[in-house]
Specification:
This protein has 132 residues and is α+β, with helices and mostly antiparallel strands. It has one domain: Jelly Rolls (Sandwich), CATH 2.60.120.10. Helices cover 22% and strands 33% of the residues. The chain has helices at 2-25, 50-54, and strands at 31-37, 44-47, 64-72, 76-80, 88-90, 95-98, 104-107, 116-123. The strands form two sheets. The chain has a four-stranded antiparallel sheet. The chain starts with a helix and ends in a 9-residue tail after the last strand.
């Protein structure tokens, strides 16, 4: 039975690696956005794609982020998609990546001043496999 379990584990590992490779090869996230919150001493909300509409971006639409990066120079609390969702505390000077449907980020004021950077890659709402 030991050899059979070993073969089964190797097949499972190979299958999982194949799925991961196919997923990354077919990853097409055409919409991009980036914003910086210069002072984390205030609370606020950022809707993904806002800088493309109001700024220099040429995409001119909001979208759902499928890959989101956060970096903060101060400890800060955020909520994804709703202020009622689970509280996430970002530690200072640490990169965080979230691979889920994110359409807005709520950030809470911190005691210390800092900078919060947010990078978004995503797709249109109707392609996100869930209603907005």
């Amino acid at each position: 039975m030991g050899k059979l379990n070993e073969i089964t584990q190797l097949i499972e590992k190979g299958t999982n690696q194949f799925i991961a490779i196919c997923t990354n090869a077919n990853r097409d996230l055409p919409f991009h956005d980036y914003t910086v919150v210069e002072s984390t001493t205030t609370s606020g909300v950022y809707v993904v794609g806002t800088n493309n509409i109001n700024g220099t971006g040429d995409q001119k639409k909001t979208f759902v982020s499928k890959s989101t990066l956060f970096f903060s120079t101060a400890i800060i609390d955020i909520h994804l998609n709703s202020h009622n969702n689970v509280l996430i505390t970002l530690l200072a000077n640490t990169w965080y990546e979230f691979k889920s449907n994110i359409h807005s980020v709520f950030y809470d004021a911190t005691q210390g001043a800092g900078v919060l950077k947010m990078y978004f890659e995503g797709i249109m709402f109707n392609e996100a496999r869930r209603p907005h």
